[in-house]
Amino acid sequence: EFRRVLFRSWVVLASLLVYSGNRGRADVLHKSGLRIAGVALGTLTAPLFAALAPAGHDWLQGPPLVLLLLAIVGLGLWLRAWSYAAWACAMTLMIGLLQSSAGVPAAEAGGIQLWTRLLATLAGAACSLAAAWFVLPVRSEPVLRRRIADTLAALSDYLAERSPEHEHRVIAALARLDEVAPPWEAWER
What we know:
The protein has 189 residues and is an all-alpha fold. It is built from 9 helices and no strands.
């Protein structure tokens, strides 16, 4: 029963995180791929990290464990600006370390709960993709076109009358355009 509840919780969490704040179908697809890749990498490398805290040993318990977990969170947050997959990987590694410190043997740390999380992430990504394509389909091309048009309009106003207000509008429009760029850059690669 606990595994079913855990699986459902991970599905809902993955679906919510992938779908929320999306900027069209391409964004949902991109975030789904990054989350799946990060969780998969974390699941595969968790046994290596869990070997640092083998069950029954006290050297990585209490404050040292908390410091290591905080270091992983900090690294995950820092790398999140580079890729969302790094954040998902860091969180999965944290779960593996916590499992290991709770007495789950290192050989199993990449086992039941982490594999359940990976399967739930796949299911959550599928739910998000289904919602993005069939429930509330927001095509990515019109979103991109709109952001480009807004940027060009702000740039046109700035070139017509160079003022701090127009400069601020150009900077804001460029920032909004950058928000929709990652899926397109990934597609180009």
